[in-house]
Every structure is written in structure tokens, then in C-alpha cells.
Automatic annotation (TrEMBL):
The keyword Translocase does not apply. This is Class I SAM-dependent methyltransferase. It holds the Pfam family Methyltransf_25. Keywords: Methyltransferase, Transferase. GO terms for biological process: methylation. Residues 40-133 form the Methyltransferase domain. The lineage of its organism: Bacteria, Pseudomonadati, Pseudomonadota, Gammaproteobacteria, Pseudomonadales. It comes from the Bacteria.
Amino acid sequence: MDPKIAEWNERYSDAEYLFGKEPNAFLASQQERFMPGMKVLSVADGEGRNGVWLAQLGLDVLAVEAAPRAIDKARQLAAERGVNLAHECADLLTWDWGSERFDAIVAIFIQFVGPELRAQMFADMQRALKPGGLLLLEGYRLEQLSYATGGPKEPANLYTAAALREAFAGLHILHLAEYDAYIEEGSRHRGMSALIDLVARKPTAEIPA
């Protein structure tokens, strides 16, 4: 097991849900974009708070996570909430994302890689979306380093609006917002935070040159 994955696996061994059991606030605010039966990928789903919530909406959810202990807790949470979703234990950097597979991809606080590997992962996401599919992403901005209330310590792993616009230039950006807000998501994300939200849609057809 990769050392970073092993480190997170150990963290998830605690009975506490590190990021809580409720969905991310930005994701919950986008509920109207989801329709029952949509096939949705929850990227690096952790202990299941987002994947389980998506399943509660009647969506066909695949939650991919690298830490086995996190998946165990996600399955417990799904049982508590009385929903079913598929889980896959995989390293997202080597996982086969597939092509035109998902109606929506949800990527909440997945800032565990630097620019080069992030570019690869963002490209994989776009390829995996069906035409017309939605990408919903939230992360921390550079200003988060001064708050120190969660997220990566490496500046290169943080987002800027310009970087996201460039990375997802092939999608139609429906919503892109930078703002500061107080969040309380378990013990790991708590306090005033520098956030950035993105909602983008994959074009339904190629635009002629």
C-alpha cells in the first residue's frame, strides 16, 4: 500500500467520522441538479458522507476510495441510512476511470496531489463524463494556508479560479465561486475556510472548428 494511503487508512481506524456524517454543504446546495437514476461517481469518498447522501437521493452511486478502513465506515453509514451504493477500493492515480461512463462526478476536497498528477486526474474526470454530464468540485484556495483549518499544507495542491478555468476549458462552466466561509465537517474541517466551488457541464457534441 502506498505510504500516503496507509497513513490515511490508519487515521480512518478511529471510531470517529473524521469529516462527519453529513454531506458537504456545497454539494447539498446543488441537490436540484441531480435526478433519480443518474449514475454518479464520488471521488475519494472517504467515510461515505457524500456518497451515502447521493444514494439517499435515489442515484446510482459508485464511491471510489483508496483506504479500506474508510470504506468499512462508509458501508456502516450506508446501513444506518438504509441505502445501497457500490464501493471500489482503488488508487485514483492508477484506477481505470473509463470513458463517457457517468452522468455526474463529485469531487470534494480531493487535493492530495500536485499539479502534474492533478492534471492527469482532471483529464480522467472529463473523459469519464457522459456528454451533458456534470462535474461538481469544491476545494481550498491558496488563502487557506493562513486559516490552517484543514486541507493540504502544500501551496501547489491548492486551487485558483484561473487554474480551474484552464483545467476545465473543455467544459461549460455553470458556476465558479471563490469565497470564505465557516465550515464544520467533523474534526478535520472546522473553522473559517478559503473555498472555491465549481459546477461544469460536458458539451453534448463536439463544436465544429
